[in-house]
Amino acid sequence: MTLRAIFSALLFLLAAPLLAQSEEFLPLTAPVELAQDQPDIAIGELIFRGGVEIAPDKAQIGGISGLEWHDGQLYAVTDDGRWLVLTPENVQGRLVDVSQVTIGPLLDERGRKLGGKERGDAEGITRLASGEWLVSFEQEHRIWRYPAIGAAAAGSEDHAAALVAGAEANSGIETIAAYAGGLFACGEWIDPARPNCLRITPQGTQAFALAAPEGIAEAGGVPTDAACAEDGTCYVLLRSYRRGEGNRAAIVEMAPDNTPETLAVLTPPLTLDNFEGLAFREEAGRKFLYVISDDNFNNCDGNERPDCQRTLLMKFEIKGNAPPPGAPVVVSAAPATKSTARPGTRPFPEAASVNVVLTTELGDITIALETERAPVTAANFLRYVDEKRFDGTVFYRAMRLDREPRPNGLLQGGTQFDPKRILPGIPHEPTSQTGLTHTHGALSMAMGEPGSANGDFSIMIEDQTGLDADPAASDPVWRNGYAVFGYVVDGMDVVAAIHASEIDPDKGEGWMKGEILAKPVKIISVRRAPAE
């Protein structure tokens, strides 16, 4: 895993929804860069925004051949007849981890798994405005409609059938992408005499030949996936492979009138693999592309071989409204909603607790300290309260997570290692011992390692349950997790208001840069609440 290793303070993960006939688990990942020592390298019109390598893991993840962004997650299909949902995690705009994978079989019209390569070779996936999904297959060339991921197929989409009439088994509809009022599809070939792409609208079907751009054309580049913006601008991923040289990739922007513009050509020695999936995401005027590679079920998996491949997921930003390469990325604040203002939920409401009121410049926050479930950590916090060590400290850090629902992340405050305020570190109480969890409104101790927590704490905004202990993990950081010791029972609207305060993009170091408040919010006092 990568995400917890990045931070010395609190980290985060999020569970994906469990879908029918599926398996859900935390994947093994490792960080990758497009170019060594150039974290935000710009190639053409694209800026690299982070990447990870995903291990095959127990589900034998691999063969990913199509990708789609929807509702904060990446949906994919594989060429052995499966679907995946990946939950990407971003910090300051950079992809740093995949916190959850849900995987299951694609089904036929009768709800049966697709058996064999001929029927299960899924190559493209897209979501329609109706909520239906389209999945394209080669070998047995077709496009099937699915009312939901994990459901049985409910019909076919036949408008693109002419594109692959007479095509070879391994040269089918490799790319499929939907947008408002249209559908875009391409086959896996380049031939000026034979159109390889279609744009299908209510006005009719337009076939055209998309040429590979210079830099990949000479290596035999062909379309492998596409994704479209709502206005009908589509992005096409092309890839090639030559023995002795390796992989190349290119991304071409197609205007609604099918005029192409090459955004970037990626060639060695950049970190590349067999990129076959592309997803588009637009937010707050900024545009992002995700690419993922197909390892052909020949994954290196810790055993590097000349012919092995990897499952790489990379994120790029299209220039335009993007911050320049190397500039700190500040995730925009999101206004609090009624949902954000809801109090935290104590998992054991009958357990003994002590309420304290944290008074800030922006209002009061009432916290129920779990003195029975987390006695050591709660007692430590109460000692800081009773000795007035929190008086005059600040909330100084707002980690804003780049995912729904918004706002999302955590707010951090406390003594900031002030030698006049901090007390010795305390024994670690993992959530596997206390039964508490990092849900919305939970308070958790900041620490570098178990036993080092003292006077800094964070408040969760939405669930960050990946911070919980995982006793089965081999990594001691994952195994121990972070210590929950209380829940906000009133004042989450104040927490959200502080979280939305202005960020100074130049403050902080490392991963905290872009998360430090320009004007920290003062904690005036913290006192035990009067007994009822």
Instruction: Tell me the major beta sheet.
Output: 8 strands, antiparallel, barrel
- Quote the distance from N terminus to C terminus: 46 Å
Strand order of the largest sheet: 23-24-29-27-28-26-25-30
Share of helical residues:
under 10%
- The helix count comes to 6
**What is the general shape?**
elongated
Strand content: 35-45%
> Which whole number gives the mean pLDDT?
90
**Radius of gyration, CA atoms, in whole angstroms:** 25 Å
**In terms of structural class, how would the helical and strand content be classed?**
mainly beta
Give the strand tally.
30
Which segments are poorly predicted (pLDDT under 50) over 5 or more consecutive residues? Answer: 1-20
InterPro entries: Cyclophilin-like_dom_sf, Cyclophilin-type_PPIase_dom, E_coli_cyclophilin_A-like, Phytase-like_dom
EC number: 5.2.1.8
Protein name: peptidylprolyl isomerase
GO molecular function: peptidyl-prolyl cis-trans isomerase activity
